[in-house]
């Protein structure tokens, strides 16, 4: 046997106390490092190579800023809020991530899935408060203020229960819910960073995330159809929203607004054509075509001068005030109402941001700090929530555009924020006549990437059937039930699939590769020779309580011997033998003599004298696993069959030692444990 190293026993209490003392001490250098770690901009900005980086950062920042403006206005439909709040969100998120983010390339801001999740919570709370979700009348905002918005809805809610002002209209209450939700989600993310709970993201596999994104995209698409055709239907809430919405659409399709239908058809045609041309000739274009901005500008001009709202009753964005609203603390009582909803929002936001950050850091050969990313996205939610903003996350589409236009550092985010600020201060009122159907078209076309996942299903199925099943279940639950429940269903189902795979793993007998000391699966390879008097059994999973029975059934089936049944059969024959001998009859019940009976007690099907268990795929044993191996050792020993273990890793060996598998003094360990299958086979052959 190889000798194990003796590990020095660590006093965990002393280690914890030492770490606590070290963390509680405060020195100038430690304080400096803490500040620079918390604000990474202090580390990289002094080293900024202006001549090398500035052009790429400015170009990518301008392009992203131009894309951000129409997307911010469009995604306000998903969040159920006014466009001005989406612009606030885009502005503050870029500034804060510039200060705290460690990724040079990700674009943090509004994201369609996050906006949808915020909008579902806002709509639910508005309904519970008694507001009408279908009131599309623009608020009277002559003074440019968003505080006096009671005219935006005929229902005024007495918020003494909710804890805000005595009177608050629909828009005021909606943004109050959104900011409270955003604040709580940010607090969750910061707490996850403090307690280093980033491992939670490991339970969101690629199949779960893709299925969730695709299912949510179907929900987003469904929610925008009513704007495409210009019909007034109630905004469905709760489970089954997708089905209910489509039923309402077909019931009310006769009320479609012809002007909105024509505008939507033209807008989608232009946007899709431009996107396809951009994808085809992207290697020749220095930067992506600002198609969304062009469509919005042209559509706004046509709507304004054609008076589409007055003449054809086409729904428009309405007044967007300029400037900033005074900051306001999110209401604590509203936080209690949305505390549960904030948890999936926080996890999804964090996972998308960190996964994108890691992907592009690997691509461009630099490192990020996942824990700092959690802090960054957390404060991108906490701080803007005081400034009437809602939840944010990194977005893949804008990040790809950012990298393709020459982005070098986080400075590009500041440039994008300046573009949004220009719109906030001066240009926002110009979008008054912009039709909502155009915004819906921009949202739907932006879902192309997620919806194209359906084309990848055959390739995904060919690669891994279980992952495909996880994708289908997550996508279906996210679309047909709700996004939050869909995410939970995806996580639980993927974990059940893993458990199922370990419960019924592959089991096989091994044969020897001719003229070698190697052994492989007898069912998968030709020309393998069986080892006389030896069975080699492989179990390709950890051995624990959930697959114990499957382990035993597979072993008995493949070796064609159940030692318990054989032992019972022998006891039965021995009992009959004794009964006949007592009667003085030297012939047994079968008409055989004593010697013949003794021969018959050794069944013909036992064609082996040693069982070698290949433990190379057994990563760990629990108490039940150790007990199972001890049982088969005892049961086969009663039949004069030795059980040998091969290729055990150190943790399995330690579990066997602690479980008493090798006896008290480990004296027989050399005859029971081998470091290769071949050594175990040679030992079995030498046994008499």
Automatic annotation (TrEMBL):
Q: Which InterPro entries match?
A: S04_transporter_CS, SLC26A/SulP_dom, SLC26A/SulP_fam, STAS_dom, STAS_dom_sf
Locate the transmembrane regions by residue number: 53-75, 95-118, 172-191, 334-354, 375-397, 417-447, 468-496
Q: Which SUPFAM superfamilies match?
A: SpoIIaa-like
Reaction(s) this enzyme catalyzes, per UniProt: sulfate(out) + 2 chloride(in) = sulfate(in) + 2 chloride(out); oxalate(out) + 2 chloride(in) = oxalate(in) + 2 chloride(out); oxalate(in) + sulfate(out) = oxalate(out) + sulfate(in); bromide(in) + chloride(out) = bromide(out) + chloride(in)
Do the record's keywords include Flavoprotein? Answer: no
A Pfam family hit: Sulfate_transp
> How is the protein disposed in the membrane?
Multi-pass membrane protein
Cite the entry's keywords alphabetically: Cell membrane, Glycoprotein, Membrane, Phosphoprotein, Transmembrane, Transmembrane helix, Transport
Entry-linked CDD domains: STAS_SulP_like_sulfate_transporter
A GO CC term?
apical plasma membrane
| Compartments (UniProt record) | Apical cell membrane
GO terms for molecular function, please?
A: secondary active sulfate transmembrane transporter activity
Which residues belong to any copy of the STAS domain? 524-684
Family statement drawn from the similarity comment of this UniProt entry: Belongs to the SLC26A/SulP transporter (TC 2.A.53) family.
What is the protein name stated in its UniProt record? Answer: Sulfate transporter
Q: Which organism does this sequence originate in?
A: Acanthisitta chloris (rifleman)
């Amino acid at each position: 046997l190889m000798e194990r190293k003796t590990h020095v026993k660590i006093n965990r209490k002393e280690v914890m106390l030492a770490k606590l003392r070290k963390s509680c001490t405060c020195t100038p250098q430690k304080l400096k490092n803490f500040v620079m770690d918390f604000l990474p901009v202090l580390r990289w900005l002094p080293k900024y190579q202006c001549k090398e980086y500035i052009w790429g950062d400015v170009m990518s920042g301008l392009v992203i800023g131009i894309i951000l403006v129409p997307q911010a206005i469009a995604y306000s439909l998903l969040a159920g809020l006014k466009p001005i709040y989406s612009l606030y969100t885009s502005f503050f998120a870029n500034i804060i991530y510039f200060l705290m983010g460690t990724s040079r390339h990700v674009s943090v801001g509004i994201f369609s899935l996050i906006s949808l999740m915020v909008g579902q919570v806002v709509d639910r709370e508005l309904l519970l408060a008694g507001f009408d979700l279908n009131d599309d009348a623009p608020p009277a905002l002559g003074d440019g203020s968003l505080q006096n918005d009671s005219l935006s809805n005929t229902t005024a809610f007495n918020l003494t229960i909710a804890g805000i002002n005595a009177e608050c209209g629909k828009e005021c209450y909606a943004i109050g819910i959104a900011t409270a939700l955003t604040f709580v989600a940010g607090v969750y993310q910061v707490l996850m960073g403090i307690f280093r709970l980033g491992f939670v993201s490991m339970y969101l596999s690629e199949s779960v995330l893709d299925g969730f994104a695709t299912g949510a995209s179907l929900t987003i698409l469904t929610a925008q159809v009513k704007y495409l055709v210009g019909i007034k239907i109630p905004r469905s809430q709760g489970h089954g929203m997708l089905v209910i919405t489509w039923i309402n659409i077909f019931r009310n399709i006769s009320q479609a607004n012809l002007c909105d239908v024509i505008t939507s058809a033209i807008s989608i045609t232009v946007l899709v054509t431009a996107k396809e041309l951009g994808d085809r000739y992207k290697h020749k274009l220095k930067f992506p075509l600002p198609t969304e901005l062009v469509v919005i500008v042209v559509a706004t001009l046509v709507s304004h001068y054609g008076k589409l709202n007055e003449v054809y009753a086409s729904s428009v964005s309405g007044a967007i005030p300029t400037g900033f609203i005074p900051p306001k603390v999110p209401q604590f009582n509203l936080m209690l109402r949305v505390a549960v909803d904030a948890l999936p929002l926080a996890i999804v936001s964090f996972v998308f941001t960190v996964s994108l950050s890691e992907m592009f850091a690997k691509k461009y050969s630099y490192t990020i700090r996942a824990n700092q990313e959690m802090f960054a996205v957390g404060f991108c939610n906490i701080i803007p929530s005081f400034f009437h903003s809602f939840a944010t996350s990194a977005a893949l589409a804008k990040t790809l555009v950012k990298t393709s236009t020459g982005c070098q550092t986080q400075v590009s985010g500041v440039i994008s924020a300046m573009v949004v600020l220009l719109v906030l201060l001066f240009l926002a009122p110009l979008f008054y006549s912009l039709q909502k159907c155009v915004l819906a078209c921009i949202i739907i076309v932006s879902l192309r990437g997620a919806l194209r996942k359906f084309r990848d299903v055959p390739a995904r199925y060919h690669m891994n059937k279980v992952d495909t099943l996880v994708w289908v279940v997550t996508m279906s639950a996210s679309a047909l039930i709700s996004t939050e429940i869909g995410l939970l269903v995806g996580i639980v189902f993927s974990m059940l699939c893993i458990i199922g795979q370990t419960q019924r793993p592959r089991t096989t007998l091994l044969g020897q590769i001719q003229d070698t000391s190697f052994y492989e699966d007898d069912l998968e390879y030709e020309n393998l020779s069986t080892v006389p008097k030896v069975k080699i059994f492989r179990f390709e999973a950890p051995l624990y309580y959930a697959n114990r029975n499957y382990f035993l059934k597979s072993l008995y089936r493949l070796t064609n011997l159940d030692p318990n049944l054989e032992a019972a059969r022998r006891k039965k024959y021995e009992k009959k033998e004794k009964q006949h001998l007592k009667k003085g009859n030297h012939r047994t019940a079968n008409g055989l003599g004593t010697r013949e009976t003794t021969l018959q007690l050794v069944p013909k099907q036992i064609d082996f004298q040693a069982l070698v268990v290949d433990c190379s795929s057994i990563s760990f044993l629990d108490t039940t696993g150790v007990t199972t191996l001890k049982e088969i050792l005892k049961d086969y020993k009663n039949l004069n069959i030795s059980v040998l273990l091969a290729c055990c890793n150190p943790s399995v060996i330690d579990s066997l030692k602690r479980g008493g598998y090798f006896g008290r003094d480990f004296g027989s360990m050399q005859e029971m444990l081998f470091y290769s299958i071949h050594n175990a086979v040679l030992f079995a052959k030498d046994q008499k």
